Amino acid sequence: MKHHPTIPRYVCHLGLLVFMIIHALGYAQTSTVPFVYGDALPDAPELAPRGPYKVGVRTLDFVHMGQVDILNSKAGVDPRYDRLLKVEVWYPAVLPEGAEEITLYEDVMGVAGDSLRPLLPFTFPGRALRDAQPLAPGGAYPLVVVSHGYLGSRYLMTYLTENLASKGYIVVAIDHMESTFRDAAGFQSTLLNRSQDIGFVVGEVASLGKQGSGHFLSGLVDAENTAIIGYSMGGYGVLNLAGAGFSDAMVGFFAGMTGGSKAIAVLSARNPQYQASSDRRIKAVVALAPWGMERGVWDADGLKGLTTPTFFVAGSEDDISGYEKGIKAIYEGAVNADRYLLTYRNARHNIAPNPPPAASLQPGLHFDEYYRYAEPSWDQRRINNINQHFITAFLGIYLKQEDYGNYLNVREDSNEKVWPGFVPRSATGMQLLRDGPGE
Predict the structure, then answer these.
(1) pLDDT in tens, 109-126
(2) Paired sense of beta strands 339-344 and 310-315, if any
(3) Where are the domains of the chain?
(4) Among residues of the chain, what percentage have pLDDT more than 70?
(5) Quick one: pLDDT at residue 409?
(6) What pLDDT, in 10s, does the model give residues 286-322?
(7) C-alpha angle with apex 181: 172 to 17, nearest 5 degrees?
(8) 19-25, long-range: CB within 8 Å, 24+ apart, which pairs?
(9) Does 138 score more than 80 pLDDT?
């Protein structure tokens, strides 16, 4: 039911807005914009702050031709169509003299076609310069491809995408067709296309990044050292692309919801084509609140196919993906991978997005516009900083061979001892597990 604001609710929203403004001013950096998503709070862990590079940002359009049009599948007959994938690229850049590293991102909240949650455009600032000249490196930069949830957008995690680009990565975030706020469509499209979209974008960016391509990315991309990062349905997608083949139960479930189509069987653990499709360029996986385990998407055999080092992030009270029988069960079942599980105690599902945009605080909006982003038990900015810290360490180890192992070799429970890189008294309410083949 659509919310009709009362005076107390309005006052609550107003107070929250004032609170955010005051705190943003308190954490001001050298910029005309006082606080931007991803800026380091006073208690941010050591690897959270931005790196030495200035950041540029550009928008590209890709077309994945001839894909199964599952939304128009009938009686098991699958027509074909072209998938339009808009992506955002963040990269180390050269800023002209006097230019400021600030841009405005244009996004929407709401759900396409939903009268209770109509699309509402909004903007928010980021620390990147639109269309800046790329910085030619001594060598190419590792590639990171990022996949949002259902529903979401390529701007859902700018706190992380900008941060990684400032540390010497080419970072590409995808708008997954039929899975964004702007073009929400049947869930079966996301189930089928998520991992295939990610794999396609890895290949396209790798091609554009080759020397002599004539593209602005020419010579900038070290695709042989690629990481894939996904949140929720993005986590579902990156795990499948990295080797966690879907179960027979998933193939049957998909057929049941699509009128008999078995198009998803090409992504199942039993399929020889899938077994031979491993992309050896992918050296690291980050799965934030990955969806699917509680619904039977994977079984033990499928999870054994995941051999790429993987960093899982979860909330212990995740009510979307599940924890003990969901995310933690994936972590425990991926017995052939070096893997980590960072758990935010008492957190629910929203352990990956930017903080709620100011537009979501408007009185009268559907509550879910705020709760698309907000985490009830944690300060979202604090989670963002912690994610930046651990993902920097993880990617640094597996993509750049940097000596960050100390930051990941910690006591399981953060309440027992100060974790390396954390300000005293600040590492509370978390657990970090680590396991690997033969351990």
Answers:
(1) 999 999 999 999 999 999
(2) parallel
(3) 7-435
(4) 93
(5) 92
(6) 999 999 999 999 999 999 999 999 999 999 999 999 9
(7) 95
(8) 20/358, 20/361
(9) no
Q: What is the mean pLDDT of residues 390-411?
A: 96
Task: Name 227's bridge partners.
Answer: 144, 284
How many Cβ atoms sit within 10 Å of the Cβ of residue 355? 22
Model pLDDT for residues 262-285, shown as the tens digit of each residue = 999 999 999 999 999 999 999 999
7 CB contacts (<8 Å, ≥6 apart)?
Answer: none
Query: Could you read off the pLDDT of 56-108 as tens digits, one per residue?
Result: 999 999 999 999 999 999 987 999 999 999 999 999 999 999 999 999 999 99
The CA distance from 141 to 118, in Å, is 40
Token pair for residue 145? 């491809």
Q: What is the structure's pLDDT at 31? A: 63
369 CB-near residues (< 8 Å, 6+ apart): 109, 110, 117, 120, 359, 360
Third-level CATH fold of 7-435: Rossmann fold (3.40.50)
Q: 13-37, pLDDT tens digit by residue?
A: 433 343 333 333 333 345 677 899 9
Q: What size, in residues, is the chain?
A: 439
Give yes or no for a cis peptide into 433 (omega within 30° of 0): no
Query: Which pTM does this prediction carry?
Result: 0.92
SS (H, E, C) the chain: CCCCCCHHHHHHHHHHHHHHHHHHHHCCCCCCCCCCCCCCCCCCCCCCCCCCCEEEEEEEEEEEEEEECHHHCECCECCEEEEEEEEEEEEEEECCCCCCCCEEEEEEECCCCCCCCCCEEEEEEECCEECCEECCCCCCEEEEEEECCCCECCCCCHHHHHHHHCCCCEEEEEECCCCECCCCCCHHHHHHHHHHHHHHHHHHHHHHCCCCCCCCCCCCEEEEEEEEEEECHHHHHHHHHCCCCECHHHHHHHHHHCCCCCHHHHHECCCHHHHCCCCCCEEEEEEECCCCHHHCCCCHHHHHCCCCCEEEEEECCCCCCCHHHHHHHHHHHCCCCCEEEEEECCCCCCCCCCCCCHHHHCCCCCHHHHHCCCCCCCCHHHHHHHHHHHHHHHHHHHHHCCCCHHHHCCCCECCCCCCCCCCCCCCCCEEEEEECCCC
What pLDDT score does 417 carry? 78
